[in-house]
């Protein structure tokens, strides 16, 4: 990390092959200067310091940090080894950071983690008709959501790991989005971040969303999530739970020869055919995250199911929704 101290500000810069962060904060300065330090060690030590002001002293052979009763020193790195910082891409629009970060967290859970399939390790972002759409999939589930957007047209694949880390940042207000063919940038006040985009083709996901349903239920998200957590304890290594939908209720169950069996019955609104269908519990829990009521639509035991917001829905159809979670079922036990 490069620390640059001016008359009344301290600037922090760090970047690697995939991302770059730059931020400036006010400080009391006795003498301007610049020091390059190993960021991982610096981060880990500073995280253990008390919530008090930090005094930084550069003594040539070491940078000394004092915070309350604690003091530590780090050997500086050679400034000539630090490459020049890249320029920010052109600005393309602004968006509320809280809304964007929530959307990133919502879809990012569905992104793949297999680096041998780079097209699945990202969040697809594109814009059309005044809407910014985010989507992610790992082949077993797919999440998508939409935000209002009045900026330039966008079409990019963002590394999910990097953008999810950024989404934990507690920024407030509108951020400026920057974009070119290779990079995505964010600016808010004196902080800016640049991420390198993934150069791969994301699957055409929109045709995968079911247009019809044979079975529909409306159920409280927390009630069903608690039932899934309970039964999945007895699901063994597979982590699979079975949903048995009958008139006015759904039974969530699991059974393995080694771990035993468990089930919970929940009353809910049901429309359409009775159905038995199985899912990986972790994926189902991700789709149920949040508060309120979920609308779930199903067709056949071997075909994708959807978890939607609580929206109006005609019998036999799916709602007109700009966000949802697609879940691929697993084979029913036995």
UniProtKB/TrEMBL annotation:
DNA polymerase III beta sliding clamp central domain span: 95-204
Membership in a protein family: Belongs to the beta sliding clamp family.
Keywords: Cytoplasm, DNA replication, DNA-binding, DNA-directed DNA polymerase, Nucleotidyltransferase, Transferase
Positions of the DNA polymerase III beta sliding clamp C-terminal domain: 208-307
GO cellular component: cytoplasm; DNA polymerase III complex
Presence of the UniProt keyword Transmembrane helix in the record: no
Biological processes per GO annotation: DNA strand elongation involved in DNA replication
UniProt domain DNA polymerase III beta sliding clamp N-terminal: residue ranges: 2-86
Keyword Cytoplasm assigned: yes
One Pfam family cited in the UniProt record for this chain: DNA_pol3_beta
Protein known as: Uncharacterized protein
Localization, UniProt: Cytoplasm
GO molecular function: 3'-5' exonuclease activity; DNA binding; DNA-directed DNA polymerase activity
């Amino acid at each position: 990390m490069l620390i640059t101290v001016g008359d009344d500000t301290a600037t922090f810069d760090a970047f690697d092959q995939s991302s770059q962060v730059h931020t400036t904060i006010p400080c009391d300065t006795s003498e301007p200067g610049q020091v390059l330090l190993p960021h991982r060690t610096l981060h880990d030590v500073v995280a253990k310091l008390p919530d008090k002001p930090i005094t930084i002293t550069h003594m040539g052979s070491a940078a000394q940090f004092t915070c309350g009763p604690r003091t530590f020193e780090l050997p500086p790195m050679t400034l000539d080894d630090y490459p020049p910082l890249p320029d920010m891409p052109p600005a393309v629009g602004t968006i509320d950071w809280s809304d964007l970060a929530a959307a990133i967290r919502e879809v990012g859970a569905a992104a793949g983690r297999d680096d041998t399939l780079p097209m699945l390790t990202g969040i697809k972002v594109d814009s059309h008709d005044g809407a910014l759409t985010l989507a992610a999939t790992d082949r077993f589930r797919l999440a998508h959501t939409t935000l209002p957007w009045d900026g330039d047209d966008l079409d990019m694949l963002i590394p999910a790991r990097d953008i999810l880390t950024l989404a934990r940042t507690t920024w407030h207000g509108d951020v400026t989005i920057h974009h070119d063919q290779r990079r995505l940038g964010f600016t808010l006040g004196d902080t800016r971040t640049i991420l390198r985009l993934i150069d791969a083709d994301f699957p055409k996901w929109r045709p995968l969303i079911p247009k019809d349903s044979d079975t529909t239920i409306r159920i409280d998200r927390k009630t069903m999530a608690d039932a899934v957590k309970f039964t999945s304890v007895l699901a063994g290594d597979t982590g699979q739970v079975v949903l048995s939908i009958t008139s006015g209720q759904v039974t969530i169950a699991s059974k393995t020869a080694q771990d035993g069996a468990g089930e919970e019955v929940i009353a809910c609104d049901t429309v359409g055919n009775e159905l038995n269908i199985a899912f990986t519990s972790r994926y189902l829990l991700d789709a149920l995250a949040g508060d309120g009521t979920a609308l779930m639509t199903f067709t056949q035991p071997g075909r994708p199911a959807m978890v939607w917001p609580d929206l109006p829905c005609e019998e036999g159809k799916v709602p007109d929704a700009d966000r949802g979670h697609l879940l691929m079922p697993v084979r029913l036990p036995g």
